[in-house]
């Protein structure tokens, strides 16, 4: 690893309402990592169009995710914030990776299976090749660390497989061009903390997601205090009081989920939360969770709503970020062309 400069990369799709899972599993972590690493945070619009997007909605959603990044505390002047389609190196490298990745590897991807559903013949080619583009996002910057929620783990394993195969296939060429330890790093996923998999409020065994039809299944980052309170009060629970220790959360998925959310929002651990609330009824705990959620999420939603009023300002941030991202990615892609044997100017 020593040969690679440490760098964080991550992305979020602009496909509709950002929710508490996106915040706790990803964006909140992005914010924290800014003090330790150089970070690149990307609104992955090319990933979004692997399933149909209404064009006007897509534009709006790209700006909304950008607003969320900034409202949550990402600094686009110290770090880089941009939308994927403005840096053509992502798509270029994805093609090379399509030629490195094996069909057998992509056939194993559970996200494709879930998203394509039963009508697989009718899924886009882009949806199938999605993980190659994701590997390209990361490796165009030779990023070493990628913060994500639990659901992206398999895609990050594939990214490592692609990097490794590229390094092996072209090992001689890579060494002759003077690169030590291979050309691409084997990226480390950063998946940790109490909320790597936030679950639906209606069913503690299902992931909280943008695509679940019921809005009561999730808290959106733009929900106001009333909506947040209502959704938490209606969230499914079980009849027992909260346990005093984490072991007592086993086989209680809804309780486990709400305790994890509380811990993540309060920057503490589930064990600490249970020390405070062990023995309490859900009604008491939910009141505390409402207060905490409104205090933490309210200002973010308000700031997002303020920022999206000025699309020109957001577009300026994205253009500036894209120009800076491209400066890092362009020489990487030139080296890839040298390694592969493609003629370029
Ligand atoms: P996306 O847009 O679905 O989600 C963005 C981030 O939110 C996390 N997340 C969750 N975390 C905890 N609990 C949940 N219920 C939950 N739902 C979503 C996701 O794990 C993710 O970190 N393929 C990626 C986007 C992507 C990307 C990349 C990420 C494209 N290129 C390169 C990292 C690096 C995706 O669809 O995320």
Note down, in words, how this protein is organized.
The chain is mainly α. It is built from 14 helices and 5 strands. It has 2 domains: about 5-195 and about 310-340, HUPs (Rossmann fold, 3-Layer(aba) Sandwich), CATH 3.40.50.620; about 215-305, Tyrosyl-Transfer RNA Synthetase (Orthogonal Bundle), CATH 1.10.240. It is about 55% helix and about 5% strand. The chain has a 3-stranded parallel β-sheet. Strand 1, helix 1 (about 20-35) and strand 2 (about 40-45) form a beta-alpha-beta unit. Tryptophanyl-5'AMP binds near residues 12, 22, 134 and 137.
How would you concisely characterize the structure shown here?
Helix content is about 55%, strand content about 5%. The chain is built from 14 helices and 5 strands.
- Rg, rounded, reads 21 Å
Q: Span between N and C termini? A: 30 Å
Bound molecules: tryptophanyl-5'AMP
Look at the structure and give the mean pLDDT.
97
Per the CATH scheme, the topology name of the largest domain is Rossmann fold
Order of H and E elements = EHEHHEHHHHEHHEHHHHH
| Sequence stretches where pLDDT stays below 50 over 5 or more residues | none
* Total discrete domains: 2
Q: What is the topology, as strand order, of the major beta sheet?
A: 1-2-3
CATH class value of the largest domain: Alpha Beta
> Major beta sheet, specifics?
3 strands, parallel
**What helical percentage do the residues reach?**
40-55%
Q: What's the shape? A: globular
Number-wise, the strands total 5
Provide the CATH superfamily of the largest domain. Answer: HUPs
The total of helices stands at 14
What would you say the CATH architecture of the largest domain is?
3-Layer(aba) Sandwich
Strand content: 5-15%
